[in-house]
Amino acid sequence: MKLYTGSGDRGKTSLFSGERVAKGHLRIEAYGDVDELNSVLGWLASVIPRKQSEIIREIRRIQSELFHIGAWLATTPDSPAMGDLQAIDADFHRPLELAIDRMQDQLRPLDRFILPGGHLSAAVAHVARTVSRRTERHVVALSETFASEKMPDDYRQILIYLNRLSDYLFALARYCNHSNGLDDIAWVKDR
Fold first, then answer.
1. Could you give the angle at the alpha carbon of 61 between the alpha carbons of 58 and 66, nearest 5°?
2. Strands (E), the chain
3. Which among 21-25, 79-83, 120-124 has the top mean pLDDT?
4. Is residue 111 part of a domain?
5. Phi and psi at residue 107, in whole multiples of 5°?
6. Average pLDDT taken over every residue of the chain
7. Residue 116 falls within a domain, yes or no?
8. 1: in domain
């Protein structure tokens, strides 16, 4: 099978559920951001020192979870393809919270704003955090297209997960600086 098909040459693409939509559709925007976030996480995993294998495994798990989220976003609710998707349960975000708590226990409490940067892994984690926030905004915009009673509960769980993921990435950025012997970069207001 060839990588290029030409089927999108006129600005349309197919959803997982089979419908053809414009490439600028909110649904495409949302799962495109998930794909971009997944790529940035791959970059992040590649710059984390190998000795931090637990963090790398955590990032790989998150990448797999993002594929799961992408499948939900690429499927129109009420389509028969919804039956092919694994449900997203109410504890989907819980491993992120546990990881945040584990990292926070090793960090000094924040008493000021910090600038993104420091160790390369911290800088990339901050980039991932900002992509995660954009992803969340686009998924919120997509979810607002549903009447509240028609929005699948899985979307609510996705929104919670994405909100927690950006918190995880902030904690991870700080943890990356800490574990590499660097302080966070404090924002100095009057410069």
1. 125
2. 12-14, 20-22, 114-115, 185-186
3. 120-124
4. yes
5. -110, 150
6. 89
7. yes
8. no
